[in-house]
Amino acid sequence: MKLELKTIAATKKAARELARGLSGNELLLLSGELASGKTTFTKFLAEALGFNPDEVSSPSFTIVNRYSSAKKPLGIYHLDLYRLANGSSLEPLGLEHILGSDDLVAVEWPEAGAKIFERSPRNTLLLRFELSGGKRFLTVERLKRHPSI
């Protein structure tokens, strides 16, 4: 599915639509160049799932943020692997623990953890953000569906 995100409102609507189909145990791989809308989309997705969007920020320097809510039993792990794309070890991040949780996991710049994400049993969606000809696009592709779901 490919969508043109003409406005911020269109981005928010796309996040709400995606949120309707999530159970909380998915792995969302957000790929795209700098300033293509990955963090903004994650903020709107968190809001659509009932989390405070003001708490959502780019984890560029912290690498991992976890958002929780007193109203929700599950949380959201938000990772940004941009600074690790040079082949740094991902072990200190505790990715195995994060992927073993029941929380939703959203990863910006997932290429650095591709081998780990390929092994994950989670339902996995690739969200590709593109800037082309002054327009912004989002392509959503299901990479993996867990057989028991």
Strand content: 25-35%
Number of strands: 7
Give me the CATH superfamily: P-loop containing nucleotide triphosphate hydrolases
Oligomer: single chain
CATH architecture: 3-Layer(aba) Sandwich
What's the number of helices? 4
Q: Strand pairing plus helix content: what structural class?
A: alpha/beta
Q: State the helicity in percent bands.
A: 10-25%
Low-confidence spans: none
Shape descriptor reads globular
SSE order, one letter for each helix or strand: EHEHEEHEHEE
Q: What's the CATH topology name?
A: Rossmann fold
Strand order of the largest sheet: 1-7-6-2-5-4-3
Overall pLDDT metric: 87
CATH class: Alpha Beta
Distance between the termini: 21 Å
Radius of gyration: 14 Å
Number of structurally distinct domains: 1
Give a nutshell description of this structure.
This protein is an alpha/beta fold. The chain contains 4 helices and 7 strands; from the N terminus they run E-H-E-H-E-E-H-E-H-E-E.
Key features of this structure:
4 helices; alpha/beta; seven-stranded mixed sheet; Rossmann fold
Give an overview in words.
This protein is of the alpha/beta class and 149 residues long. It has a single domain, classed as Rossmann fold (3-Layer(aba) Sandwich), CATH 3.40.50.300. The chain contains four helices and seven strands; from the N terminus they run βαβαββαβαββ. The chain has helices at residues 8-20, 38-48, 95-100, 114-119, and strands at residues 2-4, 27-32, 64-67, 76-80, 104-108, 124-132, 135-144. A seven-stranded mixed beta sheet has the order 1-7-6-2-5-4-3, covered by helices on one side. A hairpin with a 2-residue loop joins strand 6 and strand 7 (135-144). The longest helix is centred in the N-terminal third of the chain and has 13 residues, at 8-20. The radius of gyration is 14 Å and the shape is globular. It starts with a strand and ends in a 5-residue tail after the last strand. The model has no long low-confidence stretch (mean pLDDT 87).
